[in-house]
Write a structure and sequence with these properties.
343 residues; six-stranded parallel beta sheet; alpha/beta
Length: 343
């Protein structure tokens, strides 16, 4: 099967979508002449649309598309007569697409949620549960590559080409940095409350690094939110809150030496660029499951028996008691190790 038609089903979210890109890369290298397509939701499409690994992308507009759009997309998918459809998300909403795809081989991994596996005609047996906190999701996805005869060892991300405008915007935003200093990006924001670190922790890290490096802050534009609390009273920090789209943010990351983040889409985008070192802080989620890994990537896990709980909302009597267990001193020590600063 030198020229198969392959459909990857991974609807959301941004981080999980990026974690599926090594699978697409592995399949592209195994089947260089294949038609490899992807179905994704609009909130996670940025690094899928126009990705050189892919031929066609189907975008589901979650809030505005409705049933009519979904029906039309399924019609388009069935018309392609795919040889292989792969459900990497393993939820009911992705399993339904797998079942309706019309593909000859409908593939998923065992242990999917919401009975998503009933739509497959090939289930890859894995001894690791879908949410095994000690098993990285990238490696889990690459079990599918192995099953199809592709390389499961090589982990490589391919992002869409950014425009000259994106690159120039990033350079312009950072035009005030001191070229004699290294650049550190502080990226503390995410959508889960119990993935956030303390404001005091971030402020102590910023205070320690002030004057030693170029400090850049990325996040949302809400001055009354986290950015306002963290940055209050600090001068000389380049605040890019709300000033970049994802492609411009990607280019900003490429100009940095180090990114310090919580478990977030920003950390995953920074990893996918392959340029900066990264420190990622983990509380409710597991560093062994989703942290960037490799020689220049460092993760710090909260130190409580309940961490990681993998839950969006803390169930303990002391809410988010894991969060303060990562000390500013630990983060500062890791920064010093990476940037070769004296302690």
């Amino acid at each position: 099967m030198d020229k198969p038609k392959i459909l990857i089903i991974r609807r959301s979210a941004l981080g999980d979508t990026i974690h599926t890109l090594p699978l697409a890369k592995s399949l592209r290298e195994k089947f260089p002449n294949a038609q490899i397509d992807w179905i994704v939701e609009d909130k996670a499409e940025k690094f899928i649309t126009n990705n050189p690994l892919l031929d066609k992308v189907y975008v589901i507009h979650k809030k505005t598309g409705g049933f009519a759009e979904f029906k039309q997309i399924i019609k388009q998918i069935r018309a392609q007569k795919y040889d292989i459809a792969i459900d990497t998300q393993q939820l009911l909403k992705s399993g339904v697409i797998l079942g309706l795809s019309g593909a000859k081989r409908k593939i998923t991994l065992s242990d999917g949620r919401e009975f998503s596996w009933i739509f497959a005609n090939e289930i890859i047996k894995t001894n690791r549960k879908q949410f095994d906190i000690n098993y990285h999701v990238v490696k889990r996805n690459l079990e599918i590559a192995k099953y199809l005869g592709a390389d499961e060892e090589k982990i490589e991300f391919t992002l869409p080409n950014t425009s000259e405008n994106d690159k120039n915007k990033a350079k312009d935003l950072l035009n005030k940095i001191d070229p004699n200093l290294k650049s550190v990006i502080i990226s503390p924001e995410t959508t889960w409350d119990n993935k956030h670190w303390t404001v005091d922790g971030w402020r102590k890290v910023i205070e320690n690094l002030s004057g030693k490096v170029n400090l850049v802050y990325t996040g949302t534009s809400d001055e009354n939110g986290l950015s306002g609390k963290i940055l209050q009273g600090f001068d000389g920090i380049i605040n890019l809150s709300g000033k970049t789209n994802l492609f411009e943010l990607e280019e900003v990351f490429k100009l940095a030496n180090l990114v310090i983040s919580v478990d977030s889409g920003s950390a995953h985008v920074a990893w996918a660029t392959g340029v900066p070192a990264i420190i990622t802080l983990f509380f409710a989620t597991s560093s062994k499951r989703t942290a960037p890994f490799g020689e220049k990537y460092f993760s710090i896990q909260a130190e409580t028996p309940c961490s990681p709980c993998m839950k969006r909302k803390c169930k303990n009597k002391i809410i988010n008691e894991c969060v303060p267990t990562i000390s500013p001193e630990k983060v500062i020590s890791t920064v010093n190790e990476i940037l070769k600063f004296d302690r």
